[in-house]
Design brief:
This protein has 6 helices and 6 strands, in the order H-E-E-E-H-E-E-H-H-E-H-H. By secondary structure, it is of the alpha+beta class. Helix 1 packs across helix 4 and helix 1 runs antiparallel to helix 6. It is globular and about 80 Å long. The protein has a 6-stranded mixed β-sheet with strand order 2-3-4-5-1-6, with no helix packed on it. It binds a DNA duplex through strand 2 and strand 3.
Length: about 290
DNA sequence: GATATTTGACCTAC
DNA sequence: GTAGGTCAAATATC
């Protein structure tokens, strides 16, 4: 029977989907969750919360000076222009967003998720470029070096060789369409319950320190450039690898509109620091 | 309850 | 004075 082959294909498709889908449960810290958050105002000086007697919050409600403020343009070590700002192999936590003067899109600020535990100073900003090409491009600026050593630490932002995911058109016609159809804008739901998910969760991929859980509502494009195709640039150069890879639109958003603002969380597929294992190797292995 | 994100306010360099 | 960077309460979700 061909069922085995079909099953294999299906499993492969599933795995691919998982690997290149955002917020896969295989991402570390147990979540990669997508949430929509509200916001509230904080106390404005002493009026709201401090009925005059509490000492004002050192930062928010008073005069306190919390110190570690950096210089304006931090020593930006490297930056690149990409349509897939999330593929850097690290795990980032967003801590701010700011509308930048003269820019159409807000800039998002991220720091390494290990910054709290290990004091990793690595930060990055992601800003969508004004020239709205297709796909949209983002300027990602990295500041500081990773000093975190969790699990399989990587010396520098590393992206696994996952280019092979760009499947030939003939192969994508069915599976990709399927994916497009059922891929919601954001979810970890479908991914969570497949056998392959379990396989991944049990594999070294799960809980890897550097699987990136940043998420992007930016383009709806998921593509995985190979490591070798990315040039980390000093401030003099910009690496633009966005054109090197065909778009693998595996989870097209329901509405491009929601991508426009880049205000939502940024999501990215799983990155796995697997000592020489490419995802294709993993796929191959999994399929056997 | 834990954790990540949102977002306005705050702080500081320019 | 302004713009950019950061903080942290509020909040959503698991």
């Amino acid at each position: 029977m061909t069922t085995l082959g079909l099953q294999g294909d299906e499993l492969l498709a599933q795995l691919r989907e998982l690997l290149y889908l955002p917020s896969s449960p295989a991402t570390s810290s147990g979540d990669g969750r997508w949430r929509r958050r509200g916001s509230k105002k904080r106390c404005r000086n002493d009026n709201e919360n401090n009925n005059g007697d509490e000492e004002p919050h050192p930062r928010r409600c008073g005069s306190g000076k919390t110190s570690n403020r950096k210089t304006k343009q931090q020593k930006s070590s490297k930056y690149l222009v990409t349509s897939v700002p999330d593929f850097d192999g690290y795990q980032w936590r967003k801590y701010g967003q700011k509308q930048i003067e003269g820019a159409m899109y807000a800039r998002s600020y991220y720091r390494c998720t290990r910054s709290a535990e290990q004091g990793c100073p690595a930060k990055r900003t992601v800003q969508r470029n004004d020239d709205d090409g297709n796909p949209a491009k983002y300027t990602v600026v990295y500041m500081g070096e990773h000093t975190c050593t969790a699990n399989d630490s990587l010396e520098a932002p590393v992206i696994l060789e996952t280019t092979a995911v760009v499947v030939p058109a003939s192969a994508t016609s069915s599976s990709a369409n399927k994916q497009q159809q059922r891929r919601p804008q954001h979810d970890d739901d479908t991914a969570a319950s497949t056998p392959l998910t379990a396989a991944i969760n049990n594999s070294s991929m799960a809980g890897s320190c550097c699987s990136s859980t940043t998420t992007t509502a930016a383009t709806g494009i998921i593509e995985s450039p190979a490591t070798s195709d990315i040039t980390w640039s000093s401030s003099d150069h910009v690496a633009d690898y966005s054109g090197l890879f065909p778009v693998y639109d595996s989870w097209a958003p329901a509405s491009l509109q929601e991508m426009e603002d880049f205000t939502g969380p940024i999501r990215s597929p799983v990155h796995v620091p697997t000592d020489g294992w490419t995802i294709d190797q993993f796929l191959l292995h999994a399929a056997i």
